[in-house]
Amino acid sequence: MQRTFPLILVFIFGILGIIPFIVPHPSVQHTDEFLRNDLLRILAAFALVLGLGSLLRVHFDKIQHHRENWQYSWVLLITFFLTSIIGLFGGVAGTGPLPTKIGNFHFDIQTIYLNVEVPLGATMFALLSFFMASAAYRSFRARSTEATLLLLSAFIVMIGILPLGNQISPKLPSFAQWIMDVPNVAGKRGIAFGIALGSLATALKILLGIERSWLGGGE
Amino acid sequence: MKIFDLMLKIDRRIIYLVLAVVVILPLVIPSAQHVRVMPPVEKLFTAVDTIHSDKVLMIDFDYDPQTQPELEPMALAILRHAFNKRIKVLGLSLYVQPLGLAKSAFDQVISEYNSTAKTYEDSIIYGRDYVFLGWQPPPLVPILGMGESITNVYKKDYYGNQTDTLPLMKKIKNYNQVELLISISSGDPPLWWVGYAQNRFGLKVGVGCTAVSASDYYPYLQTGQFSGLMVGMKGAAEYEELVESRLNIYKRRKASEALPSLTYAHLVMMAFIIIGNIGYFIKRRQK
Fold first, then answer.
1. ipTM
2. Is the per-residue pLDDT at B168 higher than 80?
3. Is the whole-model pTM more than 0.80?
4. Exposed / middle / buried, residue A27 (Cβ in 10 Å: 0-12, 13-18, 19+)
5. Cα Dmax for chain A
6. How distant, in Å, are the alpha carbons of A107, A159, A180, B100 from that of B134?
7. Mean of pLDDT over chain B
8. Which among A97, A45, A149, A96 has a CA at the least distance from the CA of B138?
9. Which of A27, A108, A134 to mutate to test the interface with B (most CBs of B within 10 A)?
10. Which residue from A29, A81, A82, B18 lies 20 to 30 Å from B280 (Cα-Cα)?
11. pLDDT of B221 strictly over 90
């Protein structure tokens, strides 16, 4: 029963998810609306609680057992609780019951977000360009005909999208656009069909209980 | 042939340094670069420009701090376009992280307009001209739910107002009153909008995406499932170009200002790849 019940649930809710796309009857649509707007949100709320619980447990465990880089877990936990308190009782823009302003110094969620999360996130992503440049230099070699074609088309697209491309020749941006519109679309569409058919087959296997690896246990 | 060995083994710190210099220097003295507008952006501009007065433009702000430099200029350009043409706007995010950035994009463009407005009628007023719906998890719920009723999904807006009490929302029930949705995103949301809102409710979808996502989206543009496409910094600069040349809106063009850095960074990467390949071929011939 431990394994059969989840399989029955998946089958029922899988079918219920498909029917509203085919049957426009109001009763079917209203049922679908209830499932999505109410039931799905309740489930999502549970998932959020589980996720946060799991995050806290992992980091408390890391601190307790002094695992590698355990000191950073303190940073995570302290900031987690601080921002949670500010967010819950101070409001996003500092309009809650908890004061989030000392003199001219604001520490509401929007201020923290714009002054901490935005610069940190942007910095992390900006660093990627340096690694990409280094990796491209090391690995982008014209070793075969296919690699040479890839290299050439990459160069044409790179120059073509830049204002410089239009200055070299007005035909260059159009050619770069053609590469994106025709050969790229042809390749992407083939890949998309493959993925779609694969997803459909996997979804059917899960709905019909043939694929059971998601239940765990390795069977 | 020490030089060819060197060509194959340039220290990564040298690459980092050269790249940093060519990216930072043009940003120190910013100057907006003019660009040629390509058909995908032209299509998106026309789609926004032709929105009927009784319909609204919906913008899904789904960019985070990581992709803000590429995608925020798109949001600003579209908002400037919409408010200049007095098109009503509904804003939302499918994730929680972009909310702060969406709010600051709205605040910036609205303060630009309202600082020059002479009367209440000229001003952009919250609830009358635009509504920021905020965020409702999980993403599929608002996408499908708004096809039935927007105020049922977003009972309260981002600022905590009852949405059904806002003047704009009294005229808007569901996607029937939304002429175009623009998803400004660094991930899959544009495909969800097509998969669920367009297939089921016929919603027109326009997209602003990062340069790395572009190749995934061209098939949808070709089939007409996307009403237009803005790709990366260049796409944002093209939209800025149209906003300036067609609507005479002369504001700071962040994407156009970033283009010199982008140009030099691309050229440097290409130069390093060429150097690496020359070294590789000569070494291979020697063997």
1. 0.82
2. yes
3. yes
4. exposed
5. 70
6. 21, 39, 34, 10
7. 93
8. A45
9. A134
10. B18
11. yes
